[in-house]
Design a protein that fits this description.
Helix content: over 70%
Radius of gyration: 19 Å
Distance between the termini: 60 Å
Number of helices: 9
CATH architecture: Alpha Horseshoe
CATH topology: Serine Threonine Protein Phosphatase 5, Tetratricopeptide repeat
Number of strands: 0
């Protein structure tokens, strides 16, 4: 597929030529959008996932906050389109987790938590769903955040993300407690 080729070129060029990389990613975005907008085509879930990835790649690499926000919102819309078409519980779970990450990036932590909760309803033993601890942490719900990290580690003791999140949380918490002592 041509769009995937553009995206591969965007990733390849990123370290050498940012402008060319963003131009390639933008071309991939336009081609994927054409696929999604053409009612004669039935895009598969990989094409839906790819449009999200392209939008997210663009969003993460634009310095302009307004442009990043717009691209993240478009990415969420692409996920909503997937949810409308594909009914597989496994796919839904992964998509709502990804939407949770995007909502967190927008600072909409309650919407992120709603997404993680939907994923947990589908499969409470899927460790990534318990990354809702990050959004809880950002809302100041520290005890609940730790419970989520612990639950993810209980499910998968080798889940590095949960261990990392828990470590970062504890390190920051320890610094805050020490700072309070010196006030």
């Amino acid at each position: 597929m041509i769009a995937a080729t553009y995206m591969a070129k965007a990733e390849e060029m990123w370290q050498y030529d940012v402008e060319t990389s963003l131009t390639c990613a933008q071309s991939a975005r336009e081609l994927y959008q054409d696929i999604l907008n053409d009612s004669s085509l039935k895009p598969n879930s990989i094409e839906f996932a790819n449009i999200h990835y392209v939008l997210y790649f663009l969003a993460k690499n634009y310095a302009d906050k307004d442009k990043r926000t717009l691209l993240i919102k478009e990415s969420i819309q692409a996920y909503d389109a997937v949810l409308a078409v594909y009914k597989s519980p496994g796919e839904h779970m992964r998509i709502v987790i990804s939407k949770g990450v995007l909502f967190s990036e927008l600072g909409n932590y309650n919407a992120a938590i709603d997404c993680y909760n939907r994923a947990i309803e589908i499969d409470p033993n899927y460790a990534s769903a318990w990354n809702k601890g990050n959004s809880l942490r950002d809302l100041g719900k520290n005890d609940e955040a730790i419970e989520c990290y612990n639950r993810a580690i209980e499910i998968d003791p080798n889940y590095a993300s949960a261990w990392n999140n828990k470590h970062i949380f504890r390190s920051n918490w320890d610094r805050l407690e020490k700072a309070e002592l010196y006030r």
